[in-house]
Design a protein that fits this description.
The chain is of the alpha/beta class. The protein has one domain (4-208): DHBP synthase (Alpha-Beta Complex). The chain has helices at 14-25, 47-57, 75-78, 84-93, 110-113, 127-136, 156-163, 202-208, and strands spanning 4-7, 30-33, 38-41, 67-68, 98-103, 118-122, 140-141, 169-172, 183-186, 193-196. The strands form two sheets. It has a six-stranded mixed beta sheet, with helices on one face. It has a four-stranded mixed beta sheet with strand order 1-8-2-3, sandwiched between helices. The longest helix is centred in the N-terminal third of the chain and has 12 residues, at 14-25. The protein is globular and about 50 Å long. The relative contact order is 0.24.
Length: 209
Amino acid sequence: MQSKTIIIDLARPEPAFSRCREVIRSGGLVVYPTDTFYALGADPANPAAVARLFEVKSRQTGQPILLLIRDAREVLHWAAEITPQAEGLMQKFWPGALTLVFKAKTGVLPELTAGTGTIGLRVPGNELTRQLLAWLGTALTGTSANQSGGQSPQTAEEAQKAIGSLVDCVFDGGVTPGGKPSTIVDVSAGAPKVIREGAIPSGELLGFW
């Protein structure tokens, strides 16, 4: 049975946001739009919800899960420290398609870090997702709303076809930009290191730091 699709009214998103908050607080899973693709959202502080996310994704537990946060002030909820290089990158490229990998704060679920002791964080570039995160009052997992190896969905309809029967609710915010995923940079120790080149070219980053 497919989950219900709730359209986010961009002029009045609060009813959809409230329903999303109910699902997340009850330990459920949602599909929601971001500035790249549709993502599979779970409360990153809820072990059962994160375990279910891995099941839905058919994802190996040795693969970390990045988090989307509403603004840079939330970094220290999840990261042990912010290096000067990380601070500079945050100021230059957030909000935007840059995921920064920090040393994880004590207490962050090891399932999210995949045993690496690090956690990937990003402030999404679109206002709708940031509004949703602010309404929820928590970060959300930001992995794409598909099963591992599948195509990342740009629409709620594509996400429904991929995993709609495995989640609690799908929130339709229109067509997402798609394109390249976020660039990932490790700022957990020493000089920053590009882990994955994506929407922001590594040359632009290297030139910055």
